Structure formats: C-alpha cells, structure tokens
Amino acid sequence: MNSFNFLSPTEFVFGKEREKECGKYVRKYGGSKVLIHYGSGSVIRSGLLDRVKQSLDAEDIPFVLLGGVMPNPRDVLVYEGIALCKKEKVDFILAVGGGSVIDSAKAIAMGIPYDGDFWDFYSGKAQIRSAVSVGTVLTIAAAGSEGSGDSVITKEEGMLKRGAGSEFIRPKFSVMNPELTCTLPAYQTACGATDIMAHVFERYFTNTTEVEITDRLCEAVLITMVKETPRVIADPNNYDARANIMWAGTVAHNGIVGVGREQDWNSHGIEHELSGLYDCAHGAGLAVIMPAWMEFVMHHNPMRFAQMANRVFGVPMNFENPEETAAKGIYAFRSFLRAIGMPINFEELGAREEDIPVLVEKFGLGEDGRTGGFVKLSSADVASIYKLAVKAKL
Ligand code: NZQ
Ligand code: ZN
Questions:
Q1: Which of 43, 366, 368, 371 has the greatest number of CB atoms lying within 10 Å of its CB?
Q2: Where are the alpha helices (DSSP H) in the chain?
Q3: Is 10 helix (H, G, I), strand (E, B) or coil?
C-alpha cells in the first residue's frame, strides 16, 4: 500500500426530510448571503426549492437565485453566476440538484475571488487558491460531487469538457435525503448507478499491490450497486434501496476507497469527450466506454479482472485460465448495464464512428503523449478503445 493523506471534511446530513435543516447548516458554516443554484426545473416541480427557501428564511439568511444549469454544465452560466455573486456580495453557494448543479456551483465559488478567467482552472493555466464556501442538497446519486473536490465544466465554444480539482471546493456540508431521488426517471437512475460503479473501477484497477482493505471496500460498493440498482428500477419508491445507492455514490467518490493505491481514470477522460461532443449523459457514455476499456487493458493483469469477475459478479474462478474468468466478468458487467437500460455501443448512445479522429484529437495526447495509472494509453490506444465501443454487443 502507498503512503497517503486522507482529508474529507464534508458534513453529510443524511435521511428523510433533512433538507428542512439546510438553513441551519448554512449558518453553521458561516453563510450570511446565499446563492441558491439549481437546474432546469426538477427542484421546482418537486417542491424542494420552496422547502430550501423556507429553511433559509427560518434562519433569516437572505438569498438570490440562479437556475438553469444544464446537464454537462456550461461555462456561460458560470460567468453569469460569478457576476451575480459579486454584485450581491454572496458568501455561500447552495447547490440544489445533481452533479451538474454542484459542479457549476463549485466553478462559481472558485471564480468569485479570482481576478482572471475562471476557465484558467480548467485549462490548467492556474491553481485554485481560494473559493467561496459551497453546500449541497443532492437530488441524484451519481457523480459524487457532493463529497468530492472536483468540478467538471463544458466550455460552450468547441464543447470542451474539462475538470478542475482542489480541497477549497469540497462542499462544507451535503444534505442527502434519499426520498428526493424517487422522482428520477429510470434512465437517470441507471446513468447514476453506472457512474458510481465507474468511480470504483477507476480506483480498483491498479498496479499497487497489497491493498486488501481498499479492494474489499471497492467490492462492497460494486456488489451493493449490482443488488440495489435493479431494485430501484423495478420499484422507484424503495427508500432503503435508494438510501444504499445514495451513500454508495458518496463513498465511491469522496476518496476513501482509493487511498494508498495508484488510480487509472482513463475511462473518464475518454468518456468526457463523448459527453462533450454529443451532450449525452456522463453515465451513459461510461456504459459504452468502460467495458471497452476493460477489454483493451485486461491482458495487462488478467488476475485483477478475474478477481473482480469472481467477487463482484460471482463468476467461478478458473485458475488455469484467468483470462477466461476476466472476460466473463466484463461480459457480466456489460449484461448488467444492458439490463438496467444503458446503451452499450456507439449507435445506442448516438455517437458516430466517423467522429473518432475528432474525439481522439480532443482527448489531446498528440503523437507521443501517454496517460493513465493502470495502463498508459497512447492516442492510437484511445482510438482502439473507441472502436471497440462502436462494435460492442452481447
Ligand atoms: O436540471 P434538473 O431539472 O434538476 O434535471 C436533472 C438533469 O436533467 C435531473 N434530475 C436530477 N435530480 C432529479 C432529476 N430529475 C428528477 N428528479 C430528481 N430528483 O437529472 C438530470 C441529470 O442531472 P445531472 O446533475 O447532470 O446528473 P449527474 O449527477 O449525473 O451529474 C453529471 C455531471 O457530473 C460530472 C459529469 O461529467 C456530468 O457533467 N461529474 C462530476 C464529478 C465530480 N464533480 O466529482 C465526477 C464525475 O465523474 C462526473 O464527471
Ligand atoms: Zn464519473
């Protein structure tokens, strides 16, 4: 196991009706003027936005509103949010929604104290040195942004999707009421489940040895997702299954299952080009990319894939031929994705084979670059993974 520091100071406020307490938590973390940031309307329809406003009113905390965050959140609204917050002297941002709303809130938070263009943090030109505090009321179990120090924003010009990360943008608190996720369409639930599993896989496939504790934590999250996702798709109001998935989503991405081990993250980078170009859901893109990546890199360490196949999907271990077990595990993962309604190839996602050169170019490795923690991929490798994803079937 590698040496590590682990700091994940978000206060999670979990359970039924806990959104009624969000005003109290804004006060606890020093907010005196709040921006309530939200998406395209689900929080209005569900009545959640009204409950959040009432909770701030009860604490006498003034607020301004900015809705309209789209999935794959855009830079344009971030600029609007920064200007609004500066004008209104906002000192706390409350994101009410999913990963897109939270990521947009984090971008605004880092942009307020910065004199330059906030995009500098996403293009790698500048490091985040401070940010206004962020809190969240989560409405979908998926991205894990409620407990992460990351934000992913799409620059509308050129549809460039890029990430930025810093401890300064990790939420101070996150309210997590699993009931709020009952209104999700089955497709969004499944996209979220896929993303949660992908966050674990990015950490699970590692070259670091002797990591039994994090291997087992990863497997626990994956097994939970395999069990609970079909339950909520069959019965959207199943509170306990929703609750297990919601906490799994946080555990998968707040860092705890990845400590002390090298991580990969190529599937995410390869996927971000798809959701950047086609504006598809991140989880749907991962359903197409992640198994293709697995097929491409499996030979690097078949035993690790065989272990996953055996422990997560119950594939009997063939010690004589671990590659066979590994391949059956990838097949089981893809079958699971299909069963929960995810696309598994380019056509089902709405992606086009002829765009592969554009996707590879945007991925940005150039001729000699290589990236990844498990297997270092070149541009040609990335193109091969997209090609495997074009043809994928069961
Ligand atoms: O905008 P509204 O009307 O709220 O609708 C949303 C949106 O259309 C809807 N929704 C959310 N909660 C709902 C609901 N509909 C009904 N009932 C509810 N309770 O769901 C749609 C998708 O929402 P979105 O926030 O986009 O989903 P998600 O949480 O999956 O976030 C995806 C974004 O997060 C990024 C992704 O790349 C993508 O841009 N990621 C962020 C990460 C991070 N910050 O740590 C890590 C991830 O790997 C990921 O890259
Ligand atoms: Zn993700």
A1: 43
A2: 22-28, 42-45, 48-58, 75-88, 99-111, 120-123, 186-204, 212-234, 239-253, 266-278, 282-297, 302-313, 322-339, 346-349, 356-363, 379-391
A3: coil
Pocket test for ligand 1, best of 181, 188, 264, 274 (most atoms within 8 A of CB): 188
Probe residue for ligand 1, chosen from 146, 152, 250, 270 as the CB with the greatest number of ligand atoms within 8 Å: 152
Number of CB atoms found within 10 A of residue 59's CB: 16
| pLDDT tens per residue across span 74-89 | 999 999 999 999 999 9
Looking only at the bridges linking them, the beta strands covering 150-155 and 160-165 are antiparallel
Cα(245) to centroid of ligand 2, in Å? 15
Helix axes 186-204, 212-234, angle to 10 degrees: 170
Candidates 238, 257, 271, 228; CA nearest to 362 is 271
DSSP code at position 320: T
Q: Which of 78, 140, 179 maximizes ligand 1 atoms within 8 Å of its Cβ, making it the mutation to test the pocket? A: 140
In tens, the pLDDT along 88-136 reads 999 999 999 999 999 999 999 999 999 999 999 999 999 999 999 999 9
Angle ∠(308,330,192) on CA atoms, nearest 5: 85
Whether 166 is in the pocket of ligand 1, judged by its Cβ within 6 Å, is no
- Average the pLDDT over 237-250 and give the result: 98
134 close to ligand 1 (CB < 6 Angstrom): no
Which single residue is written with the structure tokens 């309604």? 341
Q: Does any ligand 1 atom lie closer than 6 A to the CB of residue 242?
A: no
Atom of ligand 1 nearest to the CA of 199: 48
Share the mean pLDDT of the chain: 97
**Inter-residue long-range contacts of 257-260, CB under 8 Å, 24+ positions, other chains counted:** 257/200, 257/203, 257/214, 257/217, 257/218, 257/221, 258/202, 258/203, 258/214, 259/4, 259/6, 259/214, 260/1, 260/2, 260/3, 260/4, 260/208, 260/211, 260/214
**Does the global pTM surpass 0.90?**
yes
CA of 279 to the centre of ligand 2 (A): 15
Tell me what pLDDT residue 30 has: 98
Residue whose CA is at the smallest distance from ligand 1 atom 46? 143
Residue with CA closest to ligand 1 atom 8: 71
